[in-house]
From TrEMBL:
Name of the protein: Rrf2 family protein
Molecular function via GO: DNA-binding transcription factor activity
Gene Ontology CC: one annotated term: cytosol
Organism domain of life: Bacteria
Amino acid sequence: MKYSNATNYALHTMVHLMRLPQTSTIGVQELAEMQKLSPTYLSKILTKLTKAGLIESMTGVKGGYKIARLKSRISFLDVINAIEGDTHLFDCSIHHGEGCLIENAMRQAEENMKVELDNTLISDIVAMAETAQHRKRI
């Protein structure tokens, strides 16, 4: 099980956006430079985050991107679902009817992971990043 690089970049992008003052925006070029990404590639990620309602795009002289929701309510799961979609990680490929015990066990494990990811807030990571010992880890 592995999430795509896009999810990695989306999570880092959300941290950068959350560190901005509430009314400030940042352009795609600057966000891309912070992560050493192509602006075109990052734009595709930003589009998914925008469609999910996590960020918003502002046009004009002071245009760019900013957080669209209450910062303290955005979880890792929100970002992952925006990029990867909300699909199951495991589906039994043996067609032997409903109630496959292996599929049920895998779905329960997946549900446990989703609960953990939903309880992990981007704002908590931002708070950790503000301490000197974690500053370089984002």
